Protein 1
Amino acid sequence: MLELKNIRKYYNPGTVNEMCLFENFNLTADKGDFVSVIGSNGSGKTSMLNILCGSIPVEDGQILMNGEDISRLKEYKRNRKIGRVYQNPAMGTCPSMTILENMSLADNKGNFYGLGKGINKGRRAYYQELLSRLNLGLESKMDVKVGALSGGQRQAMALLMSTLTPIDFLILDEHTAALDPKTAELIMELTDRIVKEKNLTTIMVTHNLRYAVEYGNRLLMMHQGKVVLDIAGTEKQEMKVDDILGKFNEISIECGN
Amino acid sequence: MKKKVLAVVLGTAMTVSLMACGSKDVKVAETSEEKIYTVGISQFAEHGSLDNCREGFIEGLKEAGLEEGKNLKVEVKNAAADQGTAKQISDVFVSDKVDLICGIATPSAQAAYNSAMNTDIPVIYTAVTDPKAAKLADAEGMPAGEVTGTSDQLPIKEQLEMIREVLPDAKKIGILYTTSEVNSVSAIETYEKLAEDYGFTIVKKGVSQTADISLATDEILGGVDCLTNLTDNTVVNSLATILDKANEKKIPVFGSEIEQVKLGCVAAQGLDYIELGKQTGKMAAEVLKGEKKASEMKYETISKPGLYINTEAAKNLGITLDEEFVNSAVESFDSI
Amino acid sequence: MDIFVTILEQGLIYGILALGVYITYKILDFPDLTVDGSFPLGAAVTATMITNGVNPYLTIPVSFLAGVAAGVCTGLIHVKCKVRDLLSGIIMMTALWTINLRLAGTANVPIFGDDNIFDNDLVNKVFSGSLASYKALIIVLVIAAVSKIVLDLYLKTKSGLLLRAVGDNANLVTSLAKDQGNVKILGLAIANGLVALAGCVFCQEQRVFEISSGTGAIVIGLASVIIGTSLFKNIRFFNATAAVLIGSVIYKACVAAALKFFEPQDMKLITAVLFLIILVIGMDRKKKVKKNA
């Protein structure tokens, strides 16, 4: 379970450019929830993810992970239980290292990075089996540097790597935005499969309304640091893209866009 | 592709032009019955005094009957102040089987000694201030191996006498030095030891780089009657700054060699590096001809320092110099 | 023939330094100027130990550890005090000047008369006769080869993989629940350990500690890394560390050639020209690879 309680976040505090983003922001994601988050630019979607993961500090408020207060915990320590995939496919992999090396690195998450062999040859077949499920032909390129792969291939790798070890939460930050429609579709399907297989509590920020509607059991719409729409269950299932789009336009008109 | 060609062309052009102006052919006598000696000179850096040493060295060899182009072949290499390069230079001399290596300045002398250690090639050095501290000679001044030469130790006693002569009432002598220059540190020790005999106290101020000189000068000028210089590279290179500030406060500055007096120091009991080089050249000739072994020769210091005076500098400071004193100078300058 | 021995000897000694620079410059992507201070640090430690009669072979691990300490300091300045990478190195380099001077006592400490790793009873017994003139080369070769092999092995460990990752994509290290700052400190420690080790060997080959020996060490290191990695990029037989060692030998060979044909004061210009040519040729290759991909 993930909880954000009374979060207060200012940008440039104490300067003329001070800007309030969140004032008493609250959000709770139950175990196994797959929450899609949509909203216009600057509505605070990505900031929310960054606050969750500890990439940016908050002025006030609590962040709870499975009931435990992690507000003071450093980003890298929180990541033990969190997997995160970014919009930029380059963020989730090491370009100058091979696929095998990348997979081995990710496979050791949560353990000590000591002087043991970096690559466990016995796991090679397992990695290949995981990669073959992507149908991208990566299983035959184990010794190819990741930098030579396409954006879609890299993003698939990033997704696979971030969920390779047992984690509880998956944070997806517009992870299909930089991909072509066909690859994006493939990555979304893969995401859904992994989330279901591992029963991960997932928060996905997306600009693709169709994905927001199609995937997940809960949908949030954010606007100016507030949740303006929060639907789940059957209500969510009956939701259509057009309904969302209508709601979206309403908000945008209010802002004068 | 275009870029690549350009780079190569550019590179070649630069290199060729360098080759054209850079390389100096070594003159070798074509018809000569007697043995031609080969001497490798390893100079540590490009520097006025060191250049004088080198010229004097070749001159000294000539005076002893070994002349370039007749019975002597000289190869000069300069390490551009890099210790690794200095070692490489002397290694090359050793592999070329020269008859003698001359190391100018401490690092080059040490490198030459190191390279030639297990061979029978003798090493002659010059411009090494403290051969004992450099481990080129033992505590008695006897060579550590087949290595000897001349030291450019400052004539500190004579310098103190001279300052007393020019400034009868002075009490405090200020010295600026670089903390990382071994030669300066040992010279100051000698100054401190001898100063009392002449009624002086030494005020020293260490710097670590050129940038510190200006501040250090201001500070030291506040509490001294005069300044005296060592052969400290960092300080000497900034001599113009020091003289400027000292003249403003009418504080005389004494030098340690002729070049400093030319620049505006009042006077110096200094070394003539050409003379020092000549003396070294003569020692080298003795070794080359087989008259003596380097290991049997104590290192030498310059027999008699020369007095250099700048009358213009003295006049500007309102110092009247004794006529007899002026006449005893090897050379006196009347302009700055 | 002897000249080649000298080139190899000095090339390999600076090669050890270049291995350290390779870690910071190529792997960590951290322009580490500490090198100018940690190289003479190794030499200062060595000269001090040897003049005090310590077994010369002990200088090797002790110098390495001294370098590690220097690297850790640079890392702490950068990571904990949040000082920019270049400045952290400059701060440490400046501090080390004094530390080196204090350690050694003076700016120039000759160790002519004492035993060193190249010249002691054991070595002289093993390398007698015709081998004697190659003993220094063989010993340097062994030290350089061991450094290279150990570094290669290390880079294949879990910790090594993480080190490579932090320079490549620091964000991933955070994602893997590891503190990227600590990994950087570790990398700087190993790198400066190698640099100080090179200083230790250099000091004993030169038989003198000289405070100025560190000036420009970073330039030689960078030159070796760039020459090595650019020239041997597409040759499979040489991995990066081997390429770096060879790069350093090539650099020293260029110095020797320049000494032969040019005035030494022209060295820097020739080096610059060499750099330019190698860099430009290297760049062209990179473009081709990209096009093919």
Protein 2
Amino acid sequence: MTRHLLTVHDLRVAFATEAGPARAVDGVSFTMNAGETVGLVGESGCGKSLTALSLLRLVPDGGRIAPGSRITFEEQDVLAMPERTLRALRGHRLSMIFQEPMTALNPVLTVGDQVAEVVRVHTTASAGEAWTRAVDMLAQVGIPDPAARARQYPHELSGGMRQRVMIAMALILEPALVIADEPTTALDVTIQAQILELLRDLRDRTGMALLLITHDLGVVAEMASRVLVMYAGEVVEEAPVALLFDAPGHPYTEGLLAAVPTLDSTRERLHTIPGTVPAATAWPAGCRFRDRCAHAWERCTTEPPALAQLGPAHRVRCHLVQEPERRRA
Amino acid sequence: MSASESGASRRWRALRRILQALFVVWGAATAAFILLRLAPGDPYATQIDELPIPAEARAAWRAERALDAPLATQYVRWLGNVARGNLGWSTLAERPVADVLVNVLPRTLALMGIALLTSLAGGMLLGAWQGTRAGSTGDQAVSATTLVLYSLPEFWLAMLLLQLFAHGLDWLPATGLVSADYDYLPFRAQVRDRLAHFVLPWLTLSLLGVSVFARFQRSSMLEAWREPFVRTARAKGLAERGVRWHAWRTSLVPVLGVAGLVFPSLVSGAVFVERVFAWPGMGYTTVQAVGARDYEFVTAAVVTGSAMTVIGSLLVDGLLRLADPRVRA
């Protein structure tokens, strides 16, 4: 068996709230291989960003990763390692691109300084060398006139340029795994395409693995080889990207795919999934999707479905796997 | 926008600021001129009104000094003199006003400058420390202390310190600039004596200043601490010290803004504090001069005080531009 770059096993993250603990991430397990691009899909609040932050132990205040969760990255136990080792990992072997490049960059420091800082923290390079590398990296992410741009502040750059700076910052030390949390959500459509193109290009050049978090299935189709679908704190489906689009196994995934508008569609209204996500403080017994599901029957109200094997690389958390005859037309 | 255009608009803005400043100083001095003459008595009231001399002699004495002229005439003459750099004659000190200012102004500038620096440095450190551990016992204790100090009038705090350190503990001299035997002391002892007299006025102003700045720095740091770029800094692998620096650097902007607002109250605070400690700086001398209706010294003091305030706020503007690239533009 090949060793995985990243193994997440039974990750649980809970927040203390007035209504009791909110189990925002509830038993997520998956693996990633070196160089692989995995899409992590789900609607807002499903726990996908929190899963990503957990990989760097950056869970916001009030949140706690439950004992029993395990994250192994490059054969190191991330959750057990001391702060020092963790810091050496962050931004160096395992880095993150955040969603909103305006607020995720420090407004009073030049973008060059912010990129060079990564080099200064993790290597023995002098300030001058770090700066040169930063300018070089800004050129690689497609920023014109990088030497002048490096001396500018985030507010002097466009949204797309700022996101390129974020990417430069995350990739300058050629990490083994990059987590991109909705990297294009805050950008114009044309800029989105450019940024995705850049990410794909850099991935192919450096051989990094990419965990792409998004609610946009179009992005996943273009970038990822494998997809994880999350719903209500759990992974509900995992499949190679082509299979997921051709033969989704989970009713939730079906709903997501049906909600994507297409040009040749004859429908007048966009498809929506009825209902809303239940609260993380009170997940319903049985299947968490059952109230929104067209196929639900008694078993779904009592017995929580396990992640069941549907094909060789296809896992689905649904009772329909065992009882396909229950599927309604 | 071309470079010459922005250069011209910058020059225009600078010119406008200077005109504004001159207007403020003129307005304050005029108000002082009128108010002082509306108060009963004049500079010679105590000296000649009680003397058993004929009323005509008193009138002649006043006519000689142009005190019988209409207010408008006096005002125009005074303004003309000030514009030519002649600040007039101090009837209390029986010396030219400029001579008195040369003596007392540097003392107050030193007191206020050093107190401002300690206030800023102490407040920024204390507030930043609190902001990163808000809600802890240490934070709450410091907050309670600064709130009490912040609410005390400066003369009350001055009297408390006087009671404690001068009368109770007898560690420090209570009043004056130097001791009575100052002239007979060796040089080192003279320095020590001056410093000992400096401590209480400085401590009073600094305690108040630190509490003001600490309160603002705390809330500003608390706000910066929640910004997404702090998470970015952590994700880059920075140690907590580096992360705090990121937040602190950004939190300075609103605190410096407050410094501009605090400056005038520091000027008036110095008046009370010097009075309590009978420390002969600008404030103390001005209070004496008001009592003695020393018209020309008081108006000159108001001109100086308002000029100091205006220069202080211009300095703060400059510092703000240094700290925040967004206002530079």
